[in-house]
Amino acid sequence: MLPKVLVTLGVPREHLAPLDGLAELVVLDHGICAAPREAVLEAVPGCFGIISQGELRVDDELLDRAGPDLKIVANAAMGIDNLDLDAIRNRGIAASNTPDAFAESTADLALGLILSLTRRIAEGDRFVRSGSWAETGMQPLRWEGTLAGGKTLGIIGYGRIAKLVERRAHAFNMSVRYTRTRPDGGDNYRSFDDLLAESDLVLALVPHTPQTHHLIDATALSKMKRGALFINVARGKVMDEAAVVDALNSGHLGGAAFDVFEDEPVVSPEFFGMDNVVMTPHIGGATTEERKQGRLEAAENVARFIKGEPLLSPVT
Q: CA-CA distance, 64 to 48, in Å (whole number)?
């Protein structure tokens, strides 16, 4: 009998090809949505493995329901915020993620948010859709934005995504500075405080850890240039959302863009009335090409575990 692997999203079977002939797939297909937690809890008993898009909280409740048959949990995602690693380790269960699968997509989105802020693209789109342009006619002075070129982009974190953003930013004639936990002596390395002070745009690209929780708080925001732009495509809890609201309301921040939020999918309602804020619903990795790649890598991790081979990207 083949081991059962639970898949929490109705994805094309070719995205799970590494498991062909190795596992019985139990796919919870709820259309474009991930399976509700109740459906996962009902289906997980007797399953050998779980593949999720990173949306499933794997905690004591789920692990207790799964019982001793569960041996591996594979995220088709970069992050591991949804995994209670202590609980997983305590039960001797393996876990994996796909740390590089979504880097290009996330870098593209970061540049898209930067351009939307500097050229007021989302604001202009809303204006046209509302019918206001037809009513008011041309208002050239109203829509002046600013060039990305010539600005300094400060990146908090300097992993693969940050380096891909850097490459794209250079194509727009931006200067790039970065900060990281360990200084590396690079010409463009700056301390955290110096980066905040020098940058016209500040982009968060660090994982959420106890050390980075609320890294962007009222104190950090006060060290940014007046009128600077803040972009977060990392994790919502890296920023103190209330402090960001205050900095926008005071005018100290000139604008902000978010793909992630502190208590997502709940968003601070103050943002909704701010034309200088751009928001997307955590879609950094959401491209057809890289979502497929992430699922293939997650399935490969499970396949390797079944075969007794080393995982591509273990996190336990």
A: 14
Domain boundaries of the chain, sorted by first residue: 4-101+288-307, 103-279
Alpha-carbon distance of 31 to 9, in angstroms, equals 8
Distance from C-alpha of 158 to C-alpha of 237, rounded to nearest angstrom: 19
Q: How far apart are CA 4 and CA 147, in angstroms?
A: 53
Tens digit of pLDDT for each residue in 140-189?
Answer: 889 999 999 999 999 999 999 999 999 999 999 999 999 999 888 889 99
103-279 topology per CATH = Rossmann fold (3.40.50)
pLDDT digits (tens, 9 = 90+) for 45-103: 999 999 999 999 999 999 999 999 999 999 999 989 899 999 999 999 999 999 999 99
Of these residues, 37, 65, 119, 282, which one is catalytic? 282
Instruction: Report the C-alpha gap between 77 and 56 in whole angstroms.
Output: 11
Of the candidates 119, 160, 198, 264, the residue annotated as catalytic is: 264
Kindly compute the dihedral angle of the four CA atoms of residues 111, 219, 268, 275, in this order, to the nearest 10 degrees. -50
Tell me the pLDDT band of 232, cut-offs 50, 70 and 90. very high
State which CATH number among 1.10.3210.10, 3.40.50.720, 3.40.50.2300, 3.30.980.10 fits the domain covering 4-101+288-307. 3.40.50.720
Helices (H), the chain: 37-43, 60-66, 85-90, 103-119, 121-129, 132-136, 160-171, 192-198, 218-223, 241-250, 288-307
What single-letter DSSP state applies at residue 55?
A: -
Catalytic residue among 177, 180, 235, 304: 235
CA distance 238 to 163: 20
Query: CA-to-CA distance for 185 and 29, rounded, in angstroms?
Result: 50
The neighbouring-strand residues paired with 4 are 24
235 is catalytic: yes
Whether 300 is catalytic: no
Task: Look up residue 198 and give its amino acid.
Answer: E
pTM (two decimals) = 0.93
Q: Is 24 an active-site residue?
A: no
